[in-house]
From TrEMBL:
InterPro entries: HRDC-like_sf, HRDC_dom_sf, RNase_D-like, RNAseD_HRDC_C
Keywords carried by this UniProt record: Hydrolase
Any one Pfam family match given in the protein's UniProt record, by short name: RNAseD_HRDC_C
Documented EC number(s): 3.1.13.5
Domain (Ribonuclease D C-terminal HRDC) ranges: 1-50
Domain of life: Bacteria
GO MF entries: nucleotide binding; ribonuclease D activity
Record-given protein name: Ribonuclease D
Signal peptide: none
Length: 59
């Protein structure tokens, strides 16, 4: 994904943001908002791909 959009992997998704997404997906911690990786400009780039990936890992 980072190569496709010519954005460094660190800028595209930090470790904190990945943990936030997984906590949201598996409902490990309560969250009021969507994770940063599927909202805003990151969501525009990655939401569909991340949704497809997370479908392989049931809640």
């Amino acid at each position: 994904m980072s190569e496709t959009h010519k954005i460094s992997a660190e800028l595209l998704a930090s470790r904190r943001q990945i943990k936030q997404l997984l906590n949201w997906h598996w409902k490990l911690k309560p969250q009021n908002n969507l994770p940063e990786l599927i909202s805003g400009w990151r969501g525009e780039l990655m939401a569909e791909a991340l949704h497809n990936l997370l479908q392989e890992y049931p809640q």
